[in-house]
Amino acid sequence: MAAAAPVTTFATAGGATLSPDHYVDVAYEEKLRLWDEVKADPRFPDYLYGCYECGICVAACPSAKFYNFSPRKIAQAAAREDVELIFEQMNDDVWNCSQCFSCNRCPRQNSPGGLITILREVAVNNGLASSKAALEGYTRIVYKIMTTGTQVSPDMLQADAFPDWGPGVMEVSDNLELWRKALPPETLHTTSMSWQVDDKTLTELYLIWHYTGVMDLIAEVDEGLHMIILDVMEETLEEAGFEI
Amino acid sequence: MSDRIVVIGGGPAGLEAAAMAGRLGAPVLIVEKRSHLGGAPIAESYAALTHGLQSAEELMGKMMAAATDLDRVEVRTESEVVAMSGTGGNFTVTISSNGSEETVDAGAIVLATGFQHFDPGRETQQYGYYEFPDVITIQDAEGMLKEETFVTPSTGKPPERVAFIQCVGSRDRQIGNEYCSKVCCGISSKQAIEVRQQVPDARVFIFYIDMRMYGYWENEIYWPAQEQHRVNYVKGIVTEVLAKNGRLIIRGEDTTMGRPMEVPMDVVVLAVGMEPSPGTRHMADILGIATNKYGFVETVHDVLDTVTTAVAGVYVCGSATGPADLDDTISSAGSAGAKAVAYLRSGAEVPA
Amino acid sequence: MTSIIPIESLRMKPRPDPANAPTIDIRETLFELEAAGELIVHRVPEPYVEVMTKYGRTKRIPEQMTWHHKSCGQCGHIPGYSTSIFWLNRKLGFDYVDPTDQTSCTAWNYYASATSNAAAQAGVAMRNFAAAHEVGYYPLIHCGTSYGHYKEVREEIVHHADLRAQVRDIMGKLGKELVMPEEIVHYSEWVHAMRHRFAELQVYDLSNVTASVHPACHYYKLVQEDAIYDPDLYGGERTATVSALVEALGATVGDYSTFFDCCGFGFRHILVERDFSRSFATMRKIEVIKEEANPDVVLTHDTGCVTTLDKSQFAAQAHQRNVGIPVMSDAQFAALAMGAHPYKVCQLHWHTTDYTALLEKMGIDWEKAWIEFEMDVARIERGEIEYLSWEDAGV
């Protein structure tokens, strides 16, 4: 895991330190190019106005209580256009954010969480090694959401995946088929999807991924995953009469 | 052509404008909605004024006398202007008092309807003013300080820890009040000193974004608060106020130290900012004068003429034009009174 | 010193004046866009209940004819959550659709991994909205994140003409129109609007039950202006959703000092960096709640919050931490109070933290109920019935 080590006690900011060697340094021009890509996002002007360092975002932020992480520093670095610091954050801090958007309380109406969404997207889009590392172990989820249109399926409840959730997880997985059938809603008798989704609906979803360039993004993160998803999609789309 | 000047509002701005115009020889009629003169400092029971630290009652008393001692100055309290017609030099003003209406002629009008304190129920943080009795506003604090009974409202006992939170309802895009209210840093610091004097064992904290203590306020209030009265200034605003086991708890970031903070408090004072009073909004409509996006009255030039409106013969002063301290208010009110008289004498605007 | 209290000890917050709202009412902008032929606004069907939102505006909550936009986390891992929402609808005799022409909002993945973009996210939202409009039922969003994310999408669609054009074009290729609901409605708002009707059908007395409420960040922080507030609850300073239900059912709201804190879900953290989620959920929420309010149950109104607050307690209990409060949704709690079966409907066997003490306090014989459930499961196993039906669930 490339992100800064989580601190599971109440260590406040300063408790954890950045490891200097967990991401690849690049030339200043490349950092500037990435920053320009962040600024070019149409949402950027709505997410950053300016920052007078009141700290409201930090006190509201769950991640700031456990990591060496500060939404104020994200906003400050962006406001100052500190390209070096932004690159560092893009490789590290952004993956600590909980995306709860408690920081949206900002009196300047900044959204540090929204900024982080864009920073992450640019990191993923450009295949930064740190983003691949941060998403390690996550490809299963991406595969699930992109191919089934539902994210967490009942069969993901496996004891080895959630050892800290107690024996109930194993009980669920042992009884999964039966317990899913013991659900009155007709749409929930599924095990590999959260609910029953029509083929037509999946076709439409795949077309959305295709038309919005999401598949190219996946190729940046994980070429293998990209191939697998593409296979599933192409088959469905061909059956529905679409060529992509 | 009428030589009378109608001054709407009998607070510090209206009193100064009336006294100035009266001294220059014009007949003046002050129309005041409340039952008394003196404006917010009297209505809201202000203790010592910021700055100068003199009694609000005493200073307002002096101002009232300066205006009303003049034979040419008439006062209608519990009265409101409900209509205006005509043009500069020949206005007809309709005044409603206790359900009956009368019309008076006026050559010029001075609007001095002031501000109201921001309602902390509209803040975008979570400070719980309507939820916790021990969360109060600076004007609530003034009332207690005036009586020298600064206590924790829920217990009636002197507090051990008091926090002031700055910029409540000011400098906030979420609320729509992007401006600084100018006076709250000074008032909070003044109150912090008074709390320390009245409750010497209390620890007092001021949580701020930027302390705006310009000019003489710096060495008159800010430094003494730190140096003589040991008020703690923490750069970082409070995010939320909740209760833990019956005592308030505040959360924020100490941005200088770069760490989140969670500390108990007995009393939390919200330094609420200024907004145009309902009277200012309403009178601007009746007089047909422009207001800015916040509802404060606009003048013809924001630097060179801070009192003349775009309607010939109508002047404005004090906090009806935007956040203002008492010094600013008195200065602009004198100017408005004088310009109104000059307009009547010459029949033309005084060039900016 | 005299103890004069010069301020009112109880200040009643006036109902906020919508004229002072700091934002433009986005519904007005939607109707303008509709008049300009840019999109279709899906009207809230009658009858609806009017509730007050943060700035004093009125929001319409449809009673029925709802299109249930399900939550992947609820359906996948806490199926009693979704089932209870449907059960409540059936109990009131309401017409609704549980669609198969629905995808997840995909925002969980988006907030976790950023492997998507604004156009794709808007495309997914608008496809679902169009699907609901086609069958004439109104979207009711089960997940707090979907709800918050769709409101973000609404802002983007309204304010960025380029994005609007791009998504309209994509919808065109799918043979769909660009449709935006007049209101984006969370199921917990529907629960809130129906709470007094639930109370009329209540079969258990909850006067000895204390419930603490965790409000979902994506419900009231993500786009804050159309969350429900009530001047009579918390002085109008906190969202009234869930807490108002607790009061309506005659239980006590147990307050605590970290009410506004997140649950610690973290999207990617709950899946791949769970030490953060676990620590936050237990140390900042459950332990504080237990110490200060010691309630019988923690109620919340979002998928991630139920999961994180419930599941995180197991490891903390193993470390002898002061935890051990059952967690469930407002919908499950209301259904239980109205006599829903704890296993056939509320599906509490999918939950981790022990809930039996709560059921006993409510007067529910959970041991008998479990036997009934196991008998049904056995019937399925023997092939006597294929699935548990709504009839089996009593509605």
Keywords:
heterotrimer; A: 244 residues; mainly alpha; Fumarate Reductase Iron-sulfur Protein, Chain B, domain 2; 2 domains; 50% helix; 0% strand; disordered N terminus; B: 352 residues; alpha/beta; FAD/NAD(P)-binding domain; 5-stranded parallel β-sheet; 8 helices; 18 strands; elongated
Task: Describe this protein's structure.
- The complex is a heterotrimer of chains A (244), B (352) and C (395).
- Chain A has helices spanning 28-40, 44-47, 56-60, 71-80, 83-91, 112-125, 129-134, 139-148, 168-174, 176-181, 199-211, 214-221, 223-239.
- Chain A starts with 27 loop residues before the first helix and ends in a 5-residue tail after the last helix.
- In chain A, helix 1 (28-40) packs across helix 5 (83-91).
- Chain A has 2 domains: 28-134, Fumarate Reductase Iron-sulfur Protein, Chain B, domain 2 (Orthogonal Bundle); 139-239, no CATH class.
- Chain A contains 13 helices and no strands.
- In chain A, 49% of the residues are buried.
- Chain A is mainly α and 244 residues long.
- Chain A is globular and about 55 Å long.
- Chain B is α/β, with parallel strands linked by helices and 352 residues long.
- Chain B folds into 2 domains: 5-114 and 277-346, 3-Layer(bba) Sandwich (FAD/NAD(P)-binding domain); 117-273, FAD/NAD(P)-binding domain (3-Layer(bba) Sandwich), CATH 3.50.50.60.
- Chain B has helices at residues 12-23, 39-43, 56-68, 138-146, 184-198, 217-227, 278-287, 326-346, and strands spanning 5-8, 28-31, 73-76, 79-87, 90-97, 100-106, 108-111, 115-117, 135-137, 161-168, 203-208, 232-235, 238-244, 247-254, 259-265, 267-272, 274-276, 314-316.
- In chain B, strands 3-2-1-7-18 form a 5-stranded parallel beta sheet, sandwiched between helices. Chain B has a 5-stranded parallel beta sheet with strand order 9-16-10-11-12. A 3-stranded antiparallel beta sheet of chain B has the order 4-5-6.
- In chain B, helix 5 packs parallel to helix 6 (217-227).
- The two termini of chain B are 24 Å apart.
- In chain B, 55% of the residues are buried.
- The mean pLDDT of chain B is 95.
- Chain C is an alpha/beta fold.
- Chain C folds into 2 domains: 25-187, Glutathione S-transferase Yfyf (Class Pi), Chain A, domain 2; 203-372, Rossmann fold, CATH 3.40.50.11810.
- Chain C is built from 18 helices and 11 strands.
- Chain C is globular, with a radius of gyration of 21 Å.
